[in-house]
Amino acid sequence: MTVTLSTRDALLAQIPDLRASAFLLCGSNDRADDLVQDTVLSAWAHLDDFQAGTNMGAWLFTILRNRFRTEYRKSRRWVQDVDGHYAERLTSKPEQEGWSISADLRYALAQLPAHQREAIILVGAKGMSLVEAAAVCGCEVGTIKSRTNRARARLVELLAYTRQNADELENGTARAFVASASSRGAGSEVSVRH
Fold first, then answer.
1. From the CB of residue 191, how many other CB atoms can be counted at a distance below 10 Å?
2. Which of 4, 79, 184, 193 is at a distance of 20 to 30 A from 178, taking alpha carbons?
3. Where in the chain is the domain with CATH 1.10.1740.10?
4. C-alpha torsion 7→12→13→16, nearest 10
5. Rounded to whole angstroms, how far apart are CA atoms 46 and 10?
């Protein structure tokens, strides 16, 4: 970068006008000085882009205005919180739902009958084939197929229930619903095919 004395002098001569314009835009001396400093640094770094014989003041003011607009756009997204009180009140849910999904899955698995839970864990989680799982459980392949199918269907129901009614579970209304449903169904027998 070759800077001639006339280009350097023309840039320095514009600083008072830049400060006045920056103060009108910002309304604060400190912010105006920062804006002018950023403008001069940016102009100095891109001095090769300036075309000799054109208006140095207009070029510098364009840089100043663009930097001000960029800072203004950024500042609209930020909240002034010097003491950190605003940040203390903010809470956000974790971006990963791994723990809640894991808890829901553990709950749903616990609701399954032992033979279905065993079949779905062997086939689904451990990745065993139906033949291998049947050998481990000591039953026919068709039985394992039936148990895993029923377990999958029941898991879908339970997981859908836990996701849809998570708010109700927190409020306790779902507990009352489950208690009343289990007391109604206490006398009925359910036949399970093994």
1. 4
2. 193
3. 5-76
4. 150
5. 15
Report which of 115, 110, 175, 179 is spatially closest to residue 149, judged by C-alpha positions.
115
3-state helix/strand/coil string of the chain:
CCCCHHHHHHHHHCHHHHHHHHHHHHCCHHHHHHHHHHHHHHHHHCHHHCCCCCCHHHHHHHHHHHHHHHHHHHHHHCCCCCCCHHHHHCCCCCCCCHHHHHHHHHHHHHHCCHHHHHHHHHHHHCCCCHHHHHHHHCCCHHHHHHHHHHHHHHHHHHHHHHHHCHHHHHHCHHHHHHHHHHHHCCCCCCCCCC
Q: Which residue has the tokens 């996701």?
A: 163
- Count of C-beta atoms within a 10 Å radius of residue 4: 10
Measure the CA–CA gap between 48 and 2, rounded to whole angstroms.
8
What is the rounded distance in angstroms from the CA atom of residue 151 to the CA atom of residue 119? 8
Specify the pTM. Answer: 0.41
Give the length of the chain: 194
Fold for the domain defined by 5-76:
Rna Polymerase Sigma Factor; Chain: A (1.10.1740)
Task: Specify the CATH number of the domain 98-184.
Answer: 1.10.10.10
Condensed to tens digits (0 to 9), the pLDDT of residues 16-61 reads 989 988 888 887 889 899 999 999 999 988 888 888 788 888 889 9
